[in-house]
Amino acid sequence: MGFPLLLIRTILLTLLFSLIQSRSYTSSANIKLPGDSLILSVADFGATGDGINYDTSAIQSTIDACNRHYTSSSSICRVTFPSGTYLTAKLHLRSGVVLDVTENAVILGGPRMEDYPAETSLDWYVVVANNATDVGITGGGVIDGQGSKFVVRFDEKKNVMVSWNQTGACLGDECRPRLVGFVDSRSVEIWNITLREPAYWCLDIVRCENTSVHDISILGDFNTPNNDGIDIEDSNNTVITRCHIDTGDDAICPKTYTGPLYNLTATDCWIRTKSSAIKLGSASWYDFKGLVFDNITIFESHRGLGMQIRDGGNVSDITFSNMNISTRYYDPSWWGRAEPIYITSCPRDSSAKEGSISNLLFVNITINSENGVFLSGSPNGLLSNINFKNMNITLRRWSNYSAGLVDYRPGCQGLVNHSATSGIIMEHVNGFRVENVDLKWSDDDLNSAWNVPLEFRPSTVNNVSFLGFNSGLLHELV
Ligand SMILES: *[C@@H]1O[C@H](CO)[C@@H](O)[C@H](O)[C@H]1NC(C)=O
Ligand SMILES: *[C@@H]1O[C@H](CO)[C@@H](O)[C@H](O)[C@H]1NC(C)=O
Ligand SMILES: *[C@@H]1O[C@H](CO)[C@@H](O)[C@H](O)[C@H]1NC(C)=O
Ligand SMILES: *[C@@H]1O[C@H](CO)[C@@H](O)[C@H](O)[C@H]1NC(C)=O
Ligand SMILES: *[C@@H]1O[C@H](CO)[C@@H](O)[C@H](O)[C@H]1NC(C)=O
Ligand SMILES: *[C@@H]1O[C@H](CO)[C@@H](O)[C@H](O)[C@H]1NC(C)=O
Ligand SMILES: *[C@@H]1O[C@H](CO)[C@@H](O)[C@H](O)[C@H]1NC(C)=O
Ligand SMILES: *[C@@H]1O[C@H](CO)[C@@H](O)[C@H](O)[C@H]1NC(C)=O
Ligand SMILES: *[C@@H]1O[C@H](CO)[C@@H](O)[C@H](O)[C@H]1NC(C)=O
Ligand SMILES: *[C@@H]1O[C@H](CO)[C@@H](O)[C@H](O)[C@H]1NC(C)=O
Ligand SMILES: *[C@@H]1O[C@H](CO)[C@@H](O)[C@H](O)[C@H]1NC(C)=O
Ligand SMILES: *[C@@H]1O[C@H](CO)[C@@H](O)[C@H](O)[C@H]1NC(C)=O
C-alpha cells in the first residue's frame, strides 16, 4: 500500500472520533526509539517461514515474550515477521503487542480442525486477541485463511462449504474459523495489512472500545457464503477508514448480540460484495446508535445500504453520505434483490420483538440499480424520521433479474410477490422526508414490470413529504 505515515496521522486527527491514544501512534511511528519499545523477530524464536512446517509455537512464544514487557504505561512491542510464509494454528495476540507482518510476509492459517482449539464454542480464529489493551496488526503483509481449502464444491452462484460441526459447537455450514478477531479489547489498531481468503468471517471486532481500522484490504471470495468483511459486534467507538473490501458476504456489518453498539464511523472505502455492502443486523438484540458512513463507493453489489433488524434492538441516528452505489442482481440463494437501500424491521419469528428505526439521513447519493428502494417497518417497529436528500437514482436492468419478488429474509414473510417493481416501497413508516431526489427509469425496459414510482398504503404510512422529487424516463421518448 505505502501510504505516507504523516498523511495518515493528519487525516486521522481530523476524523470525527480521534480514538487511539497518541501514545500508541507515537510508539508505532517511532518504534525504533531506544528504550521506548522493543522489536522481537519470530525468526529469532525459531519460526521457519517455509510455509510447510507449523510455526505456531515459535510465533506464540514471540508474542508472549513481547507481552511480558508490557505494563499499562509502557509502549508497545512489535512482533516482526521477516519475508516468508508462516503456516500456523490459532494464535493469541496479547496486550501491548502489535504484529508486524512485513511486506513479503504471509501468515497462513492452518486448514485442519485441530489447528483451532476452542476455549469456548465458536472461538475459532487464525489470530485472536482476548481481553487485550493496546494491541494491533500492521506491516504491509498478508494474513491468509486459505478459504479455498474449505470449499466442498465450487459454484459460480454460491460455493458449498465444509462444516466442522462434528463437535456440536455449531450447526450447518457456518462452522468454519474466522480470520482475525479482537474480543473484549481496548485501544485496538489494525492498519496497513491485507486480510485474504478467510474461511468464514474476516475481521471480527467483538465487545471492543476504541478501535481504529485503516488502510486495509480485505480480499475474500465472491462466491463464498459468510465471507463477511468487517463484523463489528457490541462495540463502541470504532473508526474504519480507507478500506478496500472485495468479498462474498456483508462487507461492513455491525451486529448486536450481548450489548449495544455506539459510535461507528466508516469513511473513504471501496466495496464490492455478493451481499450487502453495509448492513446493520441481522443479529439485532440491542441498540445501534450514532453511526456515520461517508464517502463510500459500492460497486456492483447485491445490495447497497441495508438494515435487517429482526430481534428487538432499536436503531437511531445513522447518516449515509456522499456515496456512489451500483447494485445488480446475482442469484436468489443470496439475500437481496439488488436494492440500493433496504431498511427493514420485522420480528425474526413469532417469539421475537420488533425494534424500531429512527433518525436516518441519506444525503448526496448517486444510485444505479436494478431494483428500487425498500423501506419496510412493522406495526411495533416503525421507521420514523427517514430523510433522503440530494439523490439521483437510476433504475436499469442489466442482468436476468425477474421483477416482482420482495425479499423480507431472514424470517419474516420471506420472499413475497408484489407483481410490480417500484421506485420506492414504503410500509409502516411515520415520517419520511424526501428533498431534491431524482428518480429515472430506464426506457429500454418498458415491457418489464417497472410501473410504480412510489408504492404505499396510507394505512401504514404517515407524514410523508416530497420536495423537489422528480420521477421520469431516463431518456425522453420521441
Ligand atoms: C482481563 O485482563 C485484566 C488485566 O489486564 C484482568 O485483570 C482481568 O481479570 C481479565 N479479564 C478476564 C475476563 O479475563
Ligand atoms: C506499510 O507497510 C509497508 C511495507 O512494510 C511500509 O513500507 C509502509 O511504510 C507501511 N505504511 C504505513 C503507513 O505504515
Ligand atoms: C452438520 O451440518 C450438516 C449440514 O448442515 C448437517 O447435514 C449435519 O447433520 C450436521 N451435523 C451435526 C452433527 O450437526
Ligand atoms: C458501550 O456503551 C454502552 C453505553 O454506555 C455500554 O452499555 C456498553 O457496555 C459499552 N460497550 C462496551 C463493549 O464497552
Ligand atoms: C477510549 O478513548 C477515550 C478517548 O480517548 C478515553 O477517554 C476512554 O478512556 C477510552 N476507553 C477505553 C476503555 O480505553
Ligand atoms: C458516543 O459519542 C458521543 C459523541 O461523541 C459521546 O458523547 C458518547 O459518550 C459516545 N458513546 C459511547 C458509548 O462511548
Ligand atoms: C473518498 O475516498 C477516496 C478513497 O476511496 C479518497 O481517495 C478520497 O480522497 C476521499 N474523498 C474525500 C473528499 O475525502
Ligand atoms: C461518485 O461519482 C462522482 C462522479 O463520477 C464523483 O465525482 C464522486 O467523487 C464519486 N464519489 C464517490 C464516493 O465515489
Ligand atoms: C427499543 O425501544 C422500545 C421502545 O422504547 C423499548 O421498549 C425496548 O426495550 C428497546 N429495545 C432495547 C433492546 O433496548
Ligand atoms: C444529481 O444530478 C444532478 C444533475 O445532473 C447534479 O447536478 C447533481 O450533482 C447530482 N447529485 C448527486 C448527489 O449526484
Ligand atoms: C452534500 O453535497 C453538497 C454539495 O456538494 C455539500 O455542500 C454538502 O456538504 C454535502 N453534504 C454532506 C453531508 O456531506
Ligand atoms: C439470461 O438468460 C439467457 C437465457 O437463459 C441466457 O442465454 C443469458 O446468458 C442470460 N444472461 C445473463 C446476463 O445471465
Could you describe the 3D structure shown?
This protein is mainly β. 6% of the residues lie in helices and 50% in strands. It contains three helices and 34 strands. It has an 18-stranded parallel sheet that branches. It has a single domain, classed as 3 Solenoid (Pectate Lyase C-like). The longest helix is centred in the N-terminal third of the chain and has 13 residues, at 56-68. The radius of gyration is 23 Å and the shape is elongated. A hairpin with a 6-residue loop joins β11 and β12. Bound molecules: 2-acetamido-2-deoxy-beta-D-glucopyranose (12 copies). One 2-acetamido-2-deoxy-beta-D-glucopyranose (NAG) binds at residues 364-366, 390-392, 438.
Shape call = elongated
The CATH class designation is Mainly Beta
CATH superfamily: Single-stranded right-handed beta-helix, Pectin lyase-like
Strand % is over 45%
Per DSSP, the total helix count is 3
Number of DSSP strand runs: 34
- Given the helix and strand composition, which structural class is it? mainly beta
SSE topology:
Layout: H1 5-14, H2 22-29, E1 38-41, E2 50-54, H3 56-68, E3 77-81, E4 84-88, E5 91-93, E6 97-101, E7 105-109, E8 125-130, E9 133-138, E10 142-144, E11 151-153, E12 160-161, E13 178-183, E14 186-196, E15 203-206, E16 209-219, E17 230-233, E18 236-247, E19 252-255, E20 261-273, E21 276-282, E22 288-301, E23 303-309, E24 315-327, E25 341-345, E26 357-369, E27 373-376, E28 383-395, E29 405-407, E30 415-417, E31 421-427, E32 429-441, E33 450-455, E34 461-473
The chain binds 2-acetamido-2-deoxy-beta-D-glucopyranose (NAG) (12 copies).
The site of one 2-acetamido-2-deoxy-beta-D-glucopyranose has 5 residues, from strand 24 and strand 26.
